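Kindly inspect this today.
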Amino acid sequence: MIFLTAAIFIVAIIIIVVKKRHASVTVDEPPEKRAGRQGEKIATDMIKQYLNDDDHILSNVEVVYKGRMTELDNVIINSRGVYIIEAKNLSGQLVGNEHDKEWLKVKTTAAGNTYEKTVKNPIAQVKRQIYILANFLEACGVKVWIEGYVLFVRGTSPVESMYVLDDASEIDEVIHPEKDVVLKKPKIRKIIRLLRTN
C-alpha cells in the first residue's frame, strides 16, 4: 500500500512539472512565433479537408542537405507527386515582389498607429525548400518532381505567383492535378520513411 501511494505521488509530481514546463514555454513564446505556430495548425487542418485516401501528409518535417536545413510545414505525398505547402499567418498589408529577399509588412492598429516590419519573402522560402527537399531525396536514391506553394492563412499575397495559393480551395487542385500516376507505392513508402527518420 505504501509503495502504491508513493508511486501515485511521484506520478502526480511528474505531471505537475511537465504541465508547468509546457505552460512556461507557451507564455514566454514571442507573439510572431505563436502566430506562426497557430497558422501552421490552421493550414494543416485546411489541407486535411482536401486529402484523399491515398494522400499522406507529414507536418513539421526537418530536412538537411549539404549543411542547409529547412523545416517544411506540410508535405503531401501521393501517386501524383510530392507537394510542399508552407503556411504564413501574416496580418497587415504585405508589400514586395516575387524576387525580393524580404517583404514589408505594414500594420495599422485600431488606434491608428502604423507599424512596419520586414519579413522573409515566403516565395523565396518555398523555392529554397523545394531545392533542399529534391536534392535530399535524390541523394537518398529517390528522384521525384516536387512542387511547393505558400498558403496565406490570413491576409493576401502582394503578388500573383504560381507559388501562391490565393484560397484554400486551390489546395485540391494543386495536390490532385490531372496527370498520369507517376509515383508507385514502394517509392511513396520510401519517401515517407526518409522524411520521418531524417
Remarks:
- DSSP finds five helices and eight strands in the chain.
